[in-house]
Amino acid sequence: MKELGQKEISRAIWEGCKLALFVYTPMCGTCGAARRMLEVAEHLLPEEVVVQSNINYIPELVQEYRISSVPALLLYNGENENPEIIYKMESVEHLLSRIRSVVE
């Protein structure tokens, strides 16, 4: 997964990109498990749809979307609307289904 910063994410949203943004913290064990699931799902999706960002480096997005915990997966449909936010990473199949519903 490509790591994006605040400006890169804002630009992608403004340009109407469809993407799944994985928000994490480096020392979070649950984030590590979620990352592994997303890495598997990523192989079955178009290139660079799944990106990631450390929550510590995106304070404006955290405040704007009221991200309450990590891991979080923000799904942007390309229409500059508020993203769907998923906090419960159930399974690879579930994540793949949710991401596909937004980006394909």
User: Overall mean pLDDT score?
Assistant: 94
Measured on Cα atoms, how large is the radius of gyration? 12 Å
* Cα-to-Cα separation, first versus last residue: 18 Å
Shape by Cα distribution:
globular
* SSE string: EHEHEHEEH
Number of helices: 4
**Strand order across the biggest sheet?**
1-3-2-4-5
Low-confidence stretches: none
Helix/strand-derived category reads alpha/beta
**Can you count the beta strands?**
5
Report helical residue fraction.
40-55%
Taking the sheet with the most strands, its summary is: 5 strands, mixed
- What share of the residues does DSSP label as strand, in percent? 15-25%
Descriptive labels:
104 residues; alpha/beta; five-stranded mixed sheet; 4 helices; 22% strand; globular
Task: Please specify the SSE layout and strand pairing.
Blueprint: E1 2-3, H1 6-14, E2 18-24, H2 29-42, E3 50-54, H3 59-65, E4 72-77, E5 84-86, H4 92-103
Parallel strand pairs: 1-3, 2-3
Antiparallel strand pairs: 2-4, 4-5
Helix pairs in contact: 2-4
